[in-house]
From TrEMBL:
Species lineage: Eukaryota, Fungi, Dikarya, Basidiomycota, Agaricomycotina
Source organism of this protein record: Heliocybe sulcata
Span of domain Hemerythrin-like: 8-122
Pfam families per the UniProt record, alphabetical: Hemerythrin
Signal peptide boundaries: none
Protein name: Hemerythrin-like domain-containing protein
Length: 195
């Protein structure tokens, strides 16, 4: 029995769609407590997505002949991480919190749109079904290894240093989330668990 081939671009877009959905939910939330839980989830999803791409998918861009695209994306990720860090560090009770979070989310959504519109067609054309499946699986594994909070000062090389710092950061973030009793909302879109 052959296993189902995964599509890395679908897995990446799923993250983008979750952030778009969460932002919509945040904007229609009516209480500060409801907004805080959605904000926690937004921050976690943006942090995980960026680091997971960097330690998995972007490492293959050179083989695909688009190494400069990976560099460009990492630069944008760095700016997004700084904005997400600001949102994570700010009080959800502050009067300007919506604007602080909105700046981070809008930067993420702008970057996601650029990837989908300008990069996905090129990547799709260059990947074999086997490479596509391997990259999707690498991305899904990376999502489970990376920190769940933004760490803009951490390495963004996509290599061993980022993986090592990410592993430490992931454990640290779990402790912080547990001690801080952070709550999260369910995501609308789910990655496959069978890979």
């Amino acid at each position: 029995m052959a296993s189902t081939k995964l599509d890395v671009l679908e897995e990446i877009k799923l993250d983008h769609d979750n952030v778009r959905d969460l932002w919509s939910r945040y904007q229609t939330a009516t209480t500060r407590d409801e907004k805080a839980v959605i904000a926690n989830t937004l921050i976690r999803e943006m942090a995980v997505h960026g680091d997971a791409e960097e330690i998995s998918v972007y490492n293959d861009y050179a083989k695909l002949g688009i190494a400069s695209t990976a560099d460009h994306n990492k630069e944008e990720h760095h700016e997004i991480k700084k904005l997400v860090y600001e949102a994570d560090s700010a009080s959800t009770k502050s009067a300007d919190y919506d604007a602080v979070l909105g700046k981070a989310v809008n930067a993420f959504i702008t970057h996601a749109g650029e990837e989908e519109r300008d990069q996905f067609p090129t990547i799709k054309a260059k990947l074999t079904p086997e490479e596509n499946d391997r990259l999707a699986r690498d991305f899904l594994k990376a999502r489970k290894m990376v920190p769940t909070r933004p760490h803009p000062a951490a390495p963004q090389t996509g290599g061993v240093a980022q993986k090592a710092v990410g592993a430490f950061g992931s454990v640290h973030d779990k402790i912080i989330e547990t001690l801080g009793s952070r709550e999260f909302v369910d995501l609308k879109y789910q990655h496959t668990e069978k890979f």
